[in-house]
Write a structure and sequence with these properties.
Largest sheet: 8 strands, parallel, barrel
Shape: elongated
Radius of gyration: 43 Å
Structural class: alpha/beta
Mean pLDDT: 92
Bound molecules: 1,3-dihydroxyacetonephosphate
Helix content: 40-55%
Number of strands: 16
Length: 678
């Protein structure tokens, strides 16, 4: 039972994915093929307007805007479906869009306003019946997706959705406007560069001829009957009419309707195409709507052709009065011939556009916005174009979309990681701890503690604050502090739990004063009191057993830094004393990196030096306890930290605060450092 349920679940999910991908890829294909040729969509929209007898209801610019919008909507829906962006919203929108399009295709199927709806521009031609069936399939997929979208996965994270959306909008707008301004990047029409027009008009030998069925209507004694050639009756029947029906399509050459005539109606097609030399054809379906900006370039090309004995003529479907106007305004001296408007629009998607022919073969096509210029000494061969493969161009467009998308996706991921890193920093506890060392008598210490407490009460800190005092202060200072603002710590504790150790203070005794922290491993204790990693390990254990948090210090000498051994040194200090702790115990450890050469010398490590070391220390914590724990560990910097440099130091991603010596002895200075977190 469960097995069959999981199987049907699999089918359900598979169906949802299939529906999503069929919709996505179809919409992407139709969006891109339209974006490659927005003028084709404009011409198609004009065909619809002509059918409804309102040819000038919308201006050329409005039609272009509709064409660009249509391909953008299709492309964006395709991208949203593909990546799984805003799935619910996309499922509704897709259903509405495909539903409307299905109604349009039903209308086209019934009333035939156009022979091809133009779904895929000129890239794929479908009959009206095929288009309707295609839309019914898509409608089915849209319904399936509407109810199953939640079972399909997002291919990219939500944080990337806005980025992919913005990039896709910009991409499709750029592609469609570029192709509208210049010529379509891929040319799916029969007048592609490289095509020989006379050859493209021929029916090759042996090509399938169209097959027709001929029937005859005859009459006898007032009765009408239909006959074929096989059962044709005798002469007693009277012939009435013949009917010819196409039963099998034959070969249709790519070009069937190229025909040119002059003003008198004389057919010039053969004579023009028979020219074996170079010919430039200026193509303008309607001179009235032609861009007149490049007239000087056009006239210069005509002059060039005259000088080099090449043919130059214009082809148009304009009225005689428009032709006269064009000649008047542009000073055209070249012959102007007539051709069908649809043919001219098919030849080149620009008004005007230019075609270079040689022996009837198309060697180049230009939009009126980038006509070629030829100087006197320049050969016409220098402007010949390569006819690129359409599939290759489509693949290139897909790559042009994908490569920057991958790049910005990675850049975004990198940025998000960085932000995540910073967030972790903000999530980690930030601490400014004072280490009074052996500087205060009891009265001065009490006064300082009071002052710090009052100052922080008046202006709450943005970080944890700890003051670590000599043993003799602890019991007196503890009751003076508001623990929610300032915590108390000792500067040391014994490596023995209890007993006859004259002069020593145990961790338990420290804790009993009300202190929460203890500094261990300070370089001054290692240096002057010969505390070894082993001794420190004992102290760490005792401190933890007594519920104290430890500020564990590490750092290298100047010689060690000059010998570039700082990493090695701090790693050994950690290994020797704290890296044996359990993950649970580790939660009570705050690390403090204090380069010995910077302590009390006024010589601070630069923020970059400090950051480099702290990042290294964090990486060793990550090796030991994992990345998550490392991200949670508070690591301080100590060594000549003062109000003037604290901000720069604390701005570094791995520096979570400071362990302050000299500057913690004056409430104002200490507060200045605490305020660096504000
Ligand atoms: P200074 O801030 O005086 O350099 O001392 C740093 C220090 O040793 C804190 O423990």
């Amino acid at each position: 039972m469960p097995r069959s349920r999981s199987k049907s679940n699999l089918y359900y999910q598979g169906g949802a994915w299939a529906a999503r991908m069929i919709l996505s890829l179809t919409l992407l294909l139709s969006g891109v093929t339209k974006a490659i040729d927005p003028k084709g969509t404009v011409y198609k929209l004009q065909d619809y307007l002509i059918y409804f007898d309102v040819p000038s209801l919308l201006s050329q610019d409005m039609l272009t805007a509709i064409a660009v919008m249509l391909c953008s909507v299709e492309f964006l829906l395709g991208i949203y479906l593909f990546f799984g962006i805003r799935r619910r919203f996309t499922s509704y929108l897709t259903l509405i869009f495909i539903g409307l399009m299905t109604l349009v295709t039903l209308f086209i199927l019934i009333w035939h306003p156009v022979s091809d709806c133009g779904c895929f521009g000129d890239a794929i031609h479908l009959t009206n019946g095929q288009t309707f069936v295609k839309n019914l399939v898509l409608l089915g997929c849209a319904i399936v997706y509407r109810y199953t979208y939640a079972t399909t996965h997002k291919l990219i994270g939500v944080s990337l959705h806005w980025l992919v959306s913005m990039y896709s909008i910009l991409f499709i707008l750029f592609v469609s406007l570029y192709n509208n301004y210049y010529l379509p990047l891929a040319d799916f029409r029969p007048y592609k560069v490289g095509v020989n027009i006379p050859k493209a008009m021929l029916i090759p030998e042996g090509a399938a001829e169209p097959e027709y069925e001929t029937t005859f209507w005859l009459e006898k004694n007032g009765r009408r009957q239909r006959f074929t050639i096989d059962n044709y009756p005798d002469s007693t029947w009277t012939y009435i009419s013949t009917e010819k029906k196409l039963v099998k399509e034959g070969y249709v050459p790519p070009i069937t309707d190229f025909s040119v005539c002059d003003t008198l109606g004389n057919d010039l097609t053969d004579s023009l195409l028979a020219d074996t030399g170079y010919t430039m054809m200026l193509i303008s379906p309607t001179f009235d709507q032609a861009n007149r900006v490049p007239v000087d370039e056009i006239n210069a090309l005509n002059d060039y052709c005259l000088d080099h004995k090449y043919r130059f003529y214009a082809l148009t479907a304009s009225s005689m009065s428009s032709v006269d106007k064009w000649i008047y305004y542009t000073g055209a001296e070249y012959p102007i011939y007539f051709c069908d408007a649809t043919v001219l629009k098919t030849m080149v998607r620009s008004n005007p556009g230019l075609i270079l022919l040689h022996g009837g073969t198309i060697l180049g096509k230009w939009s009126g916005h980038d006509l070629p210029t030829l100087s006197d000494g320049q050969s016409v061969k220098s402007i010949i174009q390569d006819g690129d493969n359409n599939l290759r161009i489509l693949l290139k467009i897909i790559l042009y979309y994908l490569i920057p998308l991958l790049f910005i996706t990675f850049a975004n991921k990198f940025w998000m990681n960085h932000k995540h890193h910073l967030n972790h920093k903000t999530m980690r506890q930030k601490i400014v701890a004072g280490n009074w060392k052996m500087n205060m008598n009891l009265q001065d210490g009490i006064n300082l503690a009071k002052e710090i407490n009052e100052t922080l009460k008046a202006d709450k800190p943005n970080c944890g604050v700890v003051i670590c005092t000599p043993f003799i202060h602890l019991a007196s200072v503890a009751p003076l502090l508001d623990k929610s603002l300032v915590k108390l710590g000792a500067e040391n504790c014994a490596d023995k739990a209890k007993g006859a150790y004259t002069g020593e203070v145990s961790a338990e005794m420290v804790k009993s004063t009300g202190a929460d922290y203890v500094i261990l491993g300070h370089s001054e204790r290692r240096q002057y009191y010969h505390e070894t990693p082993e001794i420190l390990k004992e102290k760490v254990q005792l401190a933890l057993q007594n519920g104290l948090k430890i500020i564990f210090c590490i750092g290298e000498t100047l010689e060690e830094r000059e010998a570039n051994k700082q990493n090695e040194v701090v790693k050994a200090e950690l290994d020797g004393s704290v890296y044996g702790l359990s993950a649970e115990e580790w939660k009570n450890i705050v690390l403090a990196y204090e380069p010995i050469w910077a302590i009390g010398t006024g010589k601070t490590a630069t923020a970059d030096q400090a950051e480099e070391m702290l990042a290294y220390i964090r990486s060793t914590v990550a090796e030991k306890y994992g990345k998550a724990v490392a991200e949670e560990t508070t690591i301080l910097y100590g060594g000549s930290c003062k109000p003037s440099n604290a901000k720069e130091l604390f701005a570094k991603p791995d520096i979570d605060g400071g362990l302050i010596g000299g500057a913690s002895l004056k409430a104002a200075d200490f507060k200045g450092i605490i305020d660096a977190w504000k």
